[in-house]
Design goal:
The strands form 15 sheets. Strands 1, 2, 58, 60, 62, 63 and 64 form a seven-stranded mixed β-sheet that branches. Strands 4, 6, 8, 10, 11 and 12 form a six-stranded mixed β-sheet that branches. The protein is elongated, with a radius of gyration of 44 Å. The model is unreliable at 1-19, 374-380 and 478-483 (pLDDT under 50). The chain folds into six domains: 28-58 and 766-897, no CATH class; 59-198, Immunoglobulin-like (Sandwich), CATH 2.60.40; 202-363, Immunoglobulin-like; 368-497, Immunoglobulins (Immunoglobulin-like, Sandwich), CATH 2.60.40.10; 502-644, Immunoglobulins (Immunoglobulin-like, Sandwich); 662-763, Sandwich (Immunoglobulin-like). By secondary structure, the chain is mainly β. Residues 1-20 form the signal peptide.
Length: 898
């Protein structure tokens, strides 16, 4: 008996190993890399690669048990000549997709006889008996993928021993299976034996109710029944502690508990319910309940039918039932397999027969909880709240996702409509986009997900967004019900305060005017320079970012008709034009909150302007408005006055600034105004092109020339629009600036008047380009399955290659590449190479903070790999680590499909 039980345990261990779940066919494995860096302008930036998606293909695999050979059959049935025999089998799908298993029977040619009337039947309740409604022969079974209900089926092979067979003769029969999805996948070692006998022969079948899947905490009722189908009455065997009789013995399945006494009856003899707590070595009628099964079969229940001599006649039957409870904490997929034995004497020798094996599997309970960081079980009303935030800022919420079910599961996360701006789902590093489901997560496991929300600059009220979590295996459900496949958490901001404000003030000899800090009092008494027509007046001023967010501001001027204003930086804030004169600007550039910068507005009075004697404050005739580029409603205005003397002249305006790529094209426009009292004939030329740049001129924007002449402009404010086109060759360095001074020279009567406008053009560009490719390999071999990693099988290795290239002409710094471990995969290896660096060491990290020159050998589910280059030798990654133009970092990341 101990040997039989050991064989059963070994078979169940093998069955569990075979049934290890694979990634389901059709699953998408998505992977996308990201990188962070500081560009050549000192701005922190992020970028993402293209996404590589691999579709898991179907693996066809199944098993039929019990196994057996012709010499050592897996099952033996004894019966009278001419009587039927029944063999019980379990067909299990061990692949990752649904399949149909075609079934046939094969007779042996080296035995004593062939069984007649062979047929295969579906044993729907796995009780080893052909019940009413199960008497239609089948040739195949349809099975869902492993790990799901319907992944296995019980079948019975029936046959009849020939009436001519003599005592002791036998016939062998094999059940053979073939996968319909992949006919090369077969199982053909399932031989069974029928032996003709005229001696006593007891049958034994076992049923489990319910059959198949069971819920944690529920009960399973096992029933063992049979009868004497032999040619004579059966006798008993000697059982320690009980005497002589027929013993039905059942080892309680590992983990199940029997708390109530079994029941039973028999057609002859005296029935006693018996127990053993030492593996069947001795038995007793005294109840030791409750008893819990273990892996060694220590605790057993049974029924003893006592009698003397050959007391159990032909056709006499018996039945024995007991109830066992499934642990409330039973993990999904836990298999409870059970078979019983019957010991008797057939008149000449002691016999031990084994029933069919019933297998119950703990049903999967898929549920999810999501809430604030560290939460382990939250309900659907969970809310994470920030008291306040500034408009224009970016806020992040960290939420804990927990698998509260009893089975490994993956989860789809989504965001509901947001009233706090544009929100993005990120992985736990807070940088890498979350693509595809999270998981699989083991039962009870957690994962941190980050929701980043950019609050609009114009937002003035609080808001919220809902983060939803759905089980992939149980995607629907009631949010208000715990332990369900759906949960949500609300992420909210109670109050949003404007993050933008600006204050402008006049600056006199380096001292801010009295209106500084008071955006409502920006007049400047006494600030009224006198200029000739065509001249200019300077207005030094300062701009302070009094908001909470970095911002840029544009400059605009309100001036008398025909007047213009050009703005310049005042780097030393002394109120005087810097030497040499800097390039004109149209705004502040980026100002951090709390910082102040100085500027000078140069008001150009047009030729021919009427004389003016402006009275300070009440007669201010110029004003400058500083406006936020982020939130147009945020601005401040300063005022001043200009006295004008009448002098005839021509003007060419405005000065222009712009940016251009390399190679690239940019068009500026200017206006030539003749404020003289007589028409003029003008020519246009420029002095730009120091670096091989080309400048072209046009009056209509379509016909271009290297210069213009013979241009007639009417007097008294007559004007002409000029177009200037800039063309840059390739390979210009980022930040290179060329200034083209456009000059209009006009003949007015006997006099000559001229004016110029400047065009300041700066080369921009330079960025990090991130590209990703993938290849899938057959298992761990070097044989390519798919050169684009579009498909893979469980067990295959996917190799991702991420290439980060500095495609610009300026250095990038602190470049960090991040690649997350995709769901449904296990980490294999990572490596990286570099080119275009004059020096540097590749460093690796699994948290983005701690770096090592040694590549990691493990990476947990939901984590990411980080790669960067240490160029200053401090074994860390900081802004001091530079990636020069044309340099590349190549990351090779290998994972294996689960």
């Amino acid at each position: 008996m101990n040997k039989l039980f050991a064989l059963l345990v070994a078979a169940l261990v093998l069955f569990g190993a075979v049934m290890a779940q694979q990634t389901p066919a059709g699953t998408n494995i998505s992977n996308q890399a990201s990188a962070s860096y500081i560009d050549s302008a000192g701005q922190a930036r992020t970028t993402t690669s293209n996404q590589v998606i691999t579709v898991v293909q179907q693996v066809y695999s199944f098993s039929i048990t019990p196994d057996g050979t012709q010499a050592a059959p897996g099952q033996t049935r004894n019966a009278l000549p001419g009587a039927p025999v029944y063999f019980s089998y379990t067909v299990s799908n061990t692949g990752n997709g649904s399949d149909t298993i075609n079934l046939t029977t094969v007779q042996d040619t080296g035995d004593n006889f062939d069984l007649g009337s062979t047929a295969i039947y579906l044993d729907a309740n796995c009780n080893g008996t052909i019940d009413p409604g199960e008497n239609t022969p089948i040739t195949s079974v349809n099975l869902t993928r492993q790990g799901t209900p319907g992944a296995s089926a019980c079948v019975i092979v029936a046959g009849t021993i020939p009436a001519s067979a003599t005592n002791g003769q036998f016939g062998n029969l094999n059940l053979s299976g073939t996968s319909a999805g992949s006919p090369s996948v077969t199982d053909t070692n399932n031989w069974a034996r029928a032996t003709a006998t005229t001696a006593a022969a007891l049958t034994a079948t076992k049923s489990a109710s319910p059959a198949g899947s069971v819920s944690p905490g529920s009960n399973i009722t096992y029933t063992i029944s049979g009868s004497n189908v032999g040619g004579s009455a059966a006798s008993g065997v000697s059982v320690s502690g009980l005497g002589t009789g027929i013993l039905i013995s059942d080892a309680i399945p590992n983990g199940l508990t029997v708390s109530t006494a079994p029941t039973g009856s028999a057609g002859a003899g005296t029935v006693q319910i018996v127990y053993s707590t030492n593996g069947g070595a001795t038995w007793s009628t005294t109840s030791p309940l409750p008893l819990t099964g273990d892996t060694t079969g220590t605790n057993r229940v049974g029924m003893f039918i006592s009698g003397s001599g050959a007391f159990f006649p032909q056709t006499a039957s018996y039945t024995f039932s007991f109830q066992a409870t499934v642990p409330a904490a039973s993990a999904a997929g836990t298999a409870y397999s059970n078979s019983a034995t019957v010991q008797f004497n057939n008149g000449t020798a002691n016999q031990t027969i084994t029933t069919n094996t019933t297998t119950n599997t703990t049903a999967s309970r898929y549920s999810v909880a999501i809430g604030g960081t560290g939460a382990s079980a939250v309900d659907g009303a969970d809310t994470q709240t920030l008291a306040s935030a500034f408009s224009g800022s970016t806020i992040s919420f960290s939420s804990t996702l927990q698998n509260t079910g009893n089975a490994s599961d993956s989860f789809t996360l989504s965001l509901g409509p947001s009233t706090i701006g544009v929100c993005t789902l990120l992985q736990s590093d807070g940088v890498t986009p979350l693509s595809g489901p999270v998981g699989p997560l083991a039962a009870g496991a957690t994962y941190t997900v980050v929701v980043r929300c950019a609050i609009p600059a114009s937002q003035t009220t609080g808001g919220s967004v809902t983060l939803n979590a759905n089980s992939v295996n149980n995607p629907s459900g009631n949010v208000a019900t715990l332990l369900d496949g759906v949960d949500e958490t609300t992420l909210a901001v109670t109050s949003v305060v404007s993050g933008y404000a600006v204050d402008a003030a006049h600056n006199t000899n380096g001292a801010a005017g009295s209106e500084a800090g008071d955006p409502t009092n920006d007049s400047r008494p006494g600030h009224n320079p006198a200029v000739n027509p065509g001249g200019s007046a300077l207005f030094p001023f300062e701009v302070s970012n009094t908001g909470q967010n970095p911002d840029t501001y544009t400059f605009s001027a309100s001036l008398p008709t025909g007047w213009t204003a050009v703005f310049y930086p005042d780097s030393d804030c002394d109120g005087s034009m810097d030497t040499p004169t800097p390039a004109p600007i149209s705004g502040t550039g980026l100002l951090n909150n709390g910082s102040t910068s100085c500027y000078i507005a140069v008001v150009q009075v047009p030729a021919g302007a009427a004389p003016a004697d402006a009275t300070p404050v009440t007669g201010d005739n110029v004003q400058f408005t500083i406006t936020s580029t982020t939130l147009g409603s945020v601005s401040d205005t300063i005022r001043g006055a200009v006295d004008v003397n009448l002098v005839a002249q021509v003007t060419l305006s405005p000065d222009r600034t712009g940016t251009i790529t390399t190679p690239g094209t940019l068009t500026y426009t200017h206006t030539l105004v003749n404020n003289s009292n007589q028409s003029g004939v003008c020519s246009i030329s420029g002095d730009g092109g120091s670096f091989g740049w080309t400048y072209q001129y046009s009056l209509d924007g379509s016909t271009w020339a290297a210069s213009l002449s013979g241009l007639s402009v009417a007097a008294n404010g007559g004007s002409q629009t000029l177009y200037v086109r800039v063309l840059t060759p390739a390979a210009q360095p980022i930040g290179r600036t060329d200034v083209n001074t456009v000059t209009a020279t006009c003949t007015v009567g006997s006099a000559t008047a001229s004016d110029s406008a400047s065009e300041t053009t700066t080369v921009v560009g330079g960025d990090l380009r991130l590209t990703k490719t993938g290849v899938s390999y057959v298992g761990t071999s070097s044989t390519v399955r798919d050169a684009n990693a579009a498909t893979a099988l469980p067990g295959d290795v996917i190799e991702y290659t991420v290439v980060a290239s500095n495609i610009g002409t300026g250095n990038l710094s602190q470049v960090v590449i991040t690649d997350p471990l995709p769901s449904y995969t296990n980490f294999v290896s990572v490596s990286a190479t570099i080119s275009g660096f004059s020096g540097g060491t590749v460093l690796y990290s699994t948290d983005g903070t701690t770096w090592s020159a040694t590549a990691p050998t493990t990476l947990s589910a939901g984590s990411s790999i980080y790669v960067a280059v240490d160029t200053n030798g401090d074994s860390n990654i900081t802004a001091a680590d530079q990636m020069p133009p044309s340099a590349t970092i190549t990351l090779t990341f290998r994972v294996q499909v689960q």
